[in-house]
Design brief:
Blueprint lengths: L1 H10 L3 H18 L12 H6 L5 H4 L9 H19 L6 H22 L5 H15 L3 E5 L3 E4 L3 H11 L5 H19 L14 H7 L23 E4 L3
Antiparallel strand pairs: 1-2, 1-3
Helix pairs in contact: 2-5, 5-7, 6-9, 6-10, 7-9
């Protein structure tokens, strides 16, 4: 009975969020069980280009370190904001969501080469948080019950939290930068006088991921409720 309930809940998670978070958890589990090592996963342009270890282009986004507070913190934020994006502003636009993944991953890979980052998963999570926060500017957030602020400040609060934990803020800055590039090209520039849409989802992705019908009885996770955890609760202004 418990297994059936878990399976039902698991299958209700949107496909992209389900696939990415599952891949991250399984990768970490494989490292914990010593089936693989982080040295087989990290981003290394030389090994990719000279030894054709192309899997590193993907696996460096899947490993968030050993199981612990940092891993759980990242997984919760990854799951919550990835799901809220997929069920909110990307509802019925799975191909566009996948294209955002590809675009963000490509930019991070290019930038990561110059800043010598070997794992980009945390930066990717910050990118998702940034895009969600900019698309929900009126949501008020509460962080650990200590800080109250509006959603667009969330990525910067997380960067400050990383700094307090002694982590490098380069990762957070990279996620914010890539998230801003995507948000500007997708949401801002097309609506400016003389602007146009530069980011166009390839037809192949639309054929693969987009479905013509939606389940009318499906209840998405409300995008205006980023809470559920003491460090990320929020409510929309005026609501």
């Amino acid at each position: 009975m418990a297994y059936q309930t878990f399976q039902q809940e698991y299958l209700q998670i949107p496909v992209v969020t389900r696939a990415y978070t599952t891949a991250c958890v399984l990768t970490t589990a494989a490292v914990q069980l010593e089936l693989i090592t982080p040295f087989q996963l990290y981003f290394n342009p030389d090994l990719i280009l000279r030894s054709y270890q192309v899997w590193r282009l993907i696996t460096n986004f899947l490993f968030f370190g050993p199981v612990g507070f940092n891993f759980l913190f990242n997984m919760i934020f990854l799951y919550r904001y990835c799901r809220m994006l997929e069920e909110g502003s990307f509802r019925g636009r799975t191909s566009d969501f996948v294209f955002m993944f590809l675009f963000g991953g490509l930019l991070m890979t290019i930038f990561g080469t110059f800043v010598s980052l070997v794992f980009l998963g945390q930066a990717f999570t910050i990118m998702l948080v940034y895009v969600w926060s900019r698309r929900n500017p009126n949501v008020r957030m509460n962080f650990f019950g200590l800080l109250n602020f509006q959603a667009p400040f969330l990525p910067w609060v997380l960067m400050g939290f990383s700094l307090l934990l002694g982590n490098s803020i380069i990762v957070d800055l990279l996620g914010i930068a890539v998230g801003h590039v995507y948000f500007f090209l997708e949401d801002v520039f097309p609506n400016q006088p003389g602007g146009s849409r530069w980011l166009k989802t390839p037809t192949l992705l639309k054929m693969i991921f987009d479905t013509p019908e939606e389940d009318a009885n499906y209840n998405p996770l409300p995008e205006e409720r980023p809470g559920g955890f003491a460090w990320g609760e929020g409510q929309r202004l005026g609501g």
